[in-house]
From TrEMBL:
Belongs to the enoyl-CoA hydratase/isomerase family. Residues 6-196 form the Enoyl-CoA hydratase/isomerase domain. The gene is LOC115708896. SUPFAM superfamilies: ClpP/crotonase (SSF52096). It catalyses: 3-hydroxy-2-methylpropanoyl-CoA + H2O = 3-hydroxy-2-methylpropanoate + CoA + H(+). Hydrolyzes 3-hydroxyisobutyryl-CoA (HIBYL-CoA), a saline catabolite. Has high activity toward isobutyryl-CoA. Could be an isobutyryl-CoA dehydrogenase that functions in valine catabolism. This is 3-hydroxyisobutyryl-CoA hydrolase. Keywords: Hydrolase. It is an enzyme of class 3 (hydrolase). It comes from Cannabis sativa. The lineage of its organism: Eukaryota, Viridiplantae, Streptophyta, Embryophyta, Tracheophyta.
Length: 223
């Protein structure tokens, strides 16, 4: 499997997207159905008078295919991804990537380093922590955590990088954002911690998830 434990770090920090073949290879998807066959699948699913997952899977299976990985698929670099993106901090991840490219020139690794270097240092820091925390939490806890993060990002009290990114990409379109803080080493643990705390403002309420007592125990446990 592609980075069984570290695909989240790679995709989350670089913004890379996985296609259908990669999703299957990673175990993030069970079937791949071409867009041209989706309407037929929808019709068949509508006719099925059952919620049995085995039956549903059989119906989907009739329309699914096994796509081939592209020649430059990230799945084929899973050894490097595991080795580098398993590091403890963003700084360590970058250092690991740089050590790899020093051993042997590699365009894919170089491009990955450039992507990380161009990104908002604050976004990298909070994203890595969120991914690592989410690995040990249920869906409900993840939703609350990410809601708090978004609230702090929108308020811009610690960093205004979200607004700056919008300016550089959507308004002035100069694609030259001026991040503040500008370097990873300028960001303290205390600054990162603020993004994961409840917003101390009467006008900003914490996320409250509705009770779902009608769900099976196995589903409630995941919340």
């Amino acid at each position: 499997m592609l980075c069984k434990y570290f695909a989240g770090e790679y995709c989350g920090l670089t913004g890379s997207r996985l296609d259908g073949a990669e999703m299957l290879a990673c175990g993030l998807a069970t079937h791949f159905v071409p867009s041209t066959r989706l309407s037929l699948l929808e019709e068949d699913l509508y006719k099925v008078d059952s919620s049995d997952p085995v039956i549903i899977s059989e119906v989907i299976g009739k329309y699914s295919q096994q796509p081939h990985l592209k020649e430059k698929s990230a799945y084929l670099r899973r050894d490097v991804i595991d080795k580098c993106f398993s590091q403890r901090t963003v700084e360590d991840i970058l250092s690991a990537l740089e050590r790899e490219v020093m051993k042997k020139p590699d365009d894919w690794i170089s491009a990955t380093i450039q992507t990380l270097r161009k990104a908002s240092p604050m976004s990298l820091k909070i994203s890595l922590r969120s991914i690592r925390e989410g690995r040990l939490q249920g869906v409900g806890q993840c939703l609350v955590r990410e809601f708090r993060m978004v609230c702090h990002v929108m308020k811009g009290e610690v960093s205004k990088d979200f607004a700056e990114g919008c300016r550089a990409l959507l308004l002035d379109k100069d694609k030259n954002p001026k991040w503040k803080p500008s370097k990873l080493e300028l960001i303290s643990d205390g600054m990162v911690n603020q993004y994961f705390s409840k917003v101390d403002d009467e006008e900003w309420e914490d996320l409250k998830l509705p009770a779902r007592s009608n769900l099976p125990v196995s589903a409630i446990a995941k919340l």
